[in-house]
Write a structure and sequence with these properties.
Elements lengths: L1 E5 L2 E6 L10 H12 L7 E6 L3 E3 L4 H8 L4 H20 L4 E5 L2 E3 L1 H8 L2 E4 L4 E3 L14 H9 L1 H10 L2 E2 L1 H7 L4 E2 L5 H14 L2 H13 L5 H16 L2 H14 L1
Parallel strand pairs: 2-3, 3-5, 4-6, 5-7, 6-8, 7-10
Antiparallel strand pairs: 1-2, 8-9
Length: 251
């Protein structure tokens, strides 16, 4: 993993290009630790991969091969470790933009899905291929988050068939927010992140929290939660600063 920070935007590269950025136990741990406690001043994150892939999932040699020697307790320890990454990403107050520069397969597809926004190049593609290797398609929160992004029917197709979804199909399904030329992908993702970073960090964090919390509540509960969230934001200095800036422009 490699990180570069500029003007409140952290760009985080998965950096094993020779292995299509496949995840190791160490990579999982590093990502969880980073998203749980991003550096002070980080207001938005761009997550991408080095080389020609975004992330090909768990490393076949470093992770997959080792699982066959584990008992059920050991297997559960591994799967709970993987879901910790999704928890860390969703609880990170800074919005995360996945810049999908190539294949995002298995856990790589999950990382893209768990991000707040997804920008891809025409080479970007996703594959929730768990069932193709004899595993449950509902991995690392996929059965919870994916239907809320693309709808139940499309999510069922992606998780049950495990087919690779190309960039244009992912865009039409709503999984990708934008598809942009390959040579501008990182610039486009960073520009989007910069817009977020230039905005009110406290309010953006509250917005992300609301999107997470309101996935499974009634409308009445959601309305009360948003009333409370908005009142909290109104008491924050950012709200006064935005109002004073607006008044100054009117003079």
């Amino acid at each position: 993993m490699r990180v570069e920070t500029d003007s409140g935007v952290a760009t985080l590269w998965l950096s094993r290009p020779d292995r299509l950025n496949a995840l190791t136990f160490e990579e999982y741990a590093a990502l969880v630790a980073w998203f749980r406690a991003p550096p002070a001043g980080v207001r938005a994150v761009v997550l991408t991969g080095e080389g020609r892939a975004f992330c090909s999932g768990g490393d076949v040699e470093d992770i997959i091969g080792q699982l066959f020697s584990r008992d059920m307790e050991g297997l559960l320890a591994f799967t709970r470790m993987t879901v910790d990454l999704v928890r860390a990403m969703r609880s990170c107050r800074a919005p995360i933009i996945a810049a999908v520069n190539g294949v995002a397969a298995g856990a790589g597809a999950i990382i893209a899905m768990a991000s707040d926004l997804r920008v891809a190049s025409p080479r970007g593609r996703v594959a929730f291929l768990f069932n193709k290797v004899g595993l449950c398609g509902a991995d690392m929160g996929a059965a919870h988050l994916l239907p809320r992004i693309v709808g139940l029917g499309r999510a069922s197709e992606m998780l049950l068939l495990g087919d690779t979804v190309d960039a244009e199909s992912a865009l039409r399904a709503g999984l990708f927010n934008r598809v942009v030329p390959e040579d501008t992908l990182l610039d486009e993702a960073r520009a989007m992140a910069a817009r977020i970073a230039a905005g009110p960090a406290f309010a953006n964090g509250m917005t992300k929290e609301a999107l997470n919390r309101e996935l499974d509540v009634s409308l009445d509960t959601a309305l009360e939660m948003e009333a409370q969230a908005q009142a909290i934001c109104m008491a924050h200095p950012d709200f006064r600063a935005a109002y004073e800036a607006w008044k100054a422009k009117k003079v």
